[in-house]
Amino acid sequence: MARASFNQLRAGLAIIILSSFLISCATSANNKYFGLTEPPKDNVMRYVTGSEPESLDPQFVTGQPEARIMMALYDGLVEYHPKTMEPIPAIAESWEVGSDGTEYLFHLRKNAKFSNGDPITAKDFVYSFRRGLSPEYAARNAYLAYYLKYAEAYNSGQSFVKDANGQFLLKKDFAAPNPNQPAETAAPAQHDTLGGDSEFHRFLDSPERLYVPTDEKARAKVLDKDPKLKAAVEGKELVPVRGEDIGVEAVDDYTVRIKLYQPAPFFLGLLGHQFFRVVHQPTIEKFGNNWVKPENIVTSGPFKVTAHRPYDELIVARDPQYWDAANIKLDGIEFYALDEQTTMMNLYKAGRVDALYNHTVPAAWNEVVRQYKNEYLLHPEVATEFYVISVKKPPMDNIKVRQAFSLAVNREALAEFRKTIKPLTDFTPEGIFPKYEEARQKIYAQKLKENNITPEQWAKRKFDPEGARKLLTEAGYPVQQQGSGFVTPSFPVEKISITYNTAESNKAVAEFVQAQWKQNLGITVPLKNMEFKTFLPMISKVEYDGFGRRGWVGDYMDPFTFLGLYYTPANEGATGWWDPKYDKMLDDANNTVDPQARFEKLAEAEFYLSQQQVVVPLSTAGTSWMKKPYIKGFYPNPGTLHAWKFVYIERDPAKWDADVDNIMKASDPLVDSQIEQLAATQVQMENSKPPAEQAKAAE
Amino acid sequence: MAFLVVTLTWGLIRVAPGNFYSSEKKLPAAVEANIKKKYGLDKPWYEQYFIMIKNVAQGDFGDSLRYQGQSVNEIIWRHLPYSATIGVLAYLLALAIGLTAGIVAALKQNSPFDYGSMALAMLGLSVPNFVLGPILVLMFSLGLYIFPPARWGGVLSLVLPVITLSAVYTAYIARLTRAGMLEVMRSDYIRTARAKGLNERTILLKHGLRGGIIPVVSFTGPALAALLAGTVVIERVFAIPGLGNIFIQANLNRDEPLVLGIVAFLSILIMLFNLLVDISYGFLDPRIRYE
Questions:
Q1: Residue B224 Cα, gap to closest chain A Cα (Å)
Q2: Taking the CB of the first residue and of the last residue of chain B, which one, N or C, has fewer CB atoms within 10 A?
Q3: Considering the entire predicted model, what is its pTM?
């Protein structure tokens, strides 16, 4: 299609709107508020969430616009804390974690109901998890649940292997050549059994069974690689892995037990994701794909659908059946499907929407909008931007060249130039995981001592043009002074480029980095831009040369969602780099139960990754969006995912937000007391643990 | 003809890199395999093509790949009215203003009105609607807070998009009418009518206009088809859930059935309107009547 001309149109459009906007701003800059600021007449919030949702089925959708809507319509075992995004109790009023970190027991509240009045029980969660993982359903997010035992086997169509005696072959007998696969550790007797024994639980707790692909061709491929396996499997009966085999169990009506195949300390944080929220089985079975139509849909969250006009709006209203309905403060929410930045800013300024989603302030509006301390939110986000490096192709296969390019970028200047980002020197985003950063500081201090690096040298890694030139010279590409600048005539610049997907912001960053490298290294790296869907396969198959633009948004609130990018050979890092040593470090960390000790191990892995310099870190994203000062209980959390039941409209202008930079620290009794009340059940649970267990947990 | 268009479009989507499920996050191979199987993408391409053509021949474009549980036909019929409303209103407005201005300008050739209106028309033709739209928004929505700056809902919300959209058409129609009228008013049959002693009013409305607006009529066919199909820019700027908006999204999403459905629908629409225009010539000008 006419993508190019469309982009030109957009660019033209942006210029016109912006220039005319600036004129109008000149007259209104003295105002206290940005544009028309009056709370809506009804107690209904008007929100722009992004483009039209793909569906209202929480397990089908993957985008952020949808995620926010799903949080209104569906409830899960846990909910995201509105400020920190840590898990707080939702349908599960409390939970216990087994001492080896692979078993979770959730105690559900007994008054949770679907929007049609049906009670929500443990069986509904079991159904939802199995449905999401079924290969026929083909959910794109299914991999989020691969931590559950046999979940991946079920989702990828595998079969257990049963011998003539009715015994299943075990995985440990075919010691995988992959060193990352944790060995079966303890015998079942040593596991503690949360929530009591059951036959299914004994099956899950027994050593992991061997499985091979059910599909004949795929199986032949696997078996041909491993003659020992082939001999063992041949002639044996294959038993397909079923949904009933995966590691989730309804112990009773109000208790859900989850079994992971290895410890995943971030798993609780993942459970707030829409993929794990509960759906209504009878409705889905009755209507098939049409169950999400407004006339059929049954939901489980604080709000329910009242109208859906695709590409226009989705209207939801408070659901009186919701277990915590008394604490829902809004009567409803109108979600507008919009993704044109200037259009939504126009609506915002005209007082027709109350808040926008993240990254919606166009670059040129920034200067004006950021003056409104009561409305413009710029907080660190669980998202980073970096350039991946194609490490297999010369000249970038030389680590010194890679380091030189990374050192030659002034990140502080970049952040200042872009205004909506913060500089990034390591790999995980800054200001998002405070406890991890503490651990990292400690570990890095140790590493510096071990490697004889002075703190001054270490600080220089942020930006060191001189060091960069030295490294490049050492790598065999001497940098020469020429006038006030530099030249590196021997560097094969035709072999590299910066490839990015078409977007104003990406272009601005690429041009900035290009200028930095020209200035500091005397190398002018060509820029290449392409449409998003064309760009994706190019990056993921590492077909680009030199540098590729990459942004990464965390799936959950744990540094592993970033560090895991380079985990296993089939990783998503898009550089061609993989190192078993790095995998081992991550595995070690995840097998550590104590959170702080685990963070320290993760920090070691991050240090190692940074030393390999397979990426050029650039920035941690800032949320950059606006909300009217009368919208309260609505926070710029790292994922811009809002737990809607805490949001309210303040009618008294005296209580409106005046300083949103400190909004996360400021306490709001209405919201804080509610969260405290919710969290109390879990705190009680932790305190009521037998002393022996508490001691164990404290270790 | 429509089949040729569909086949070409199908081929182009297939050649374009990326697919409807690709995103920043790479999917595990197993997940991707499940998706391919679910949507029949694991079959050989020729088989997929024949399945597609067979369904299309029956008027069934299947379900959208992106919007779960929504059929392409359903989406097209649901969003056509938005585009059609804006398009038809804009065209009616353009006709009303354009015809009047054109006729008056032709009758008062070389008068200040003639120069003034034609200069304005020139301006209307050269200012693109993605410039005009935002300027109107700035003035009436953000300056005076009279009309909503975007979104569908209520008569007020129609004002700005309709005016923006009609500007180019108004200008075009005014110029066409003026030129057509000037030519006709000099022709022999008008002179005959005058010689018969008919009054100017009858000459103008009954004889002059019929011949004078033929260029406008030939313009109407493609113009209406284009307007019904939705105008991408207007619909984006004003966030109107019309076909043009959907079509752009469908392409960016690589939503194959939806793209095919809209392309087929549009090509049929354009053919239909051109046919109607050809038929209407006969009524307006006896000289072009078919034997």
A1: 21
A2: C
A3: 0.86
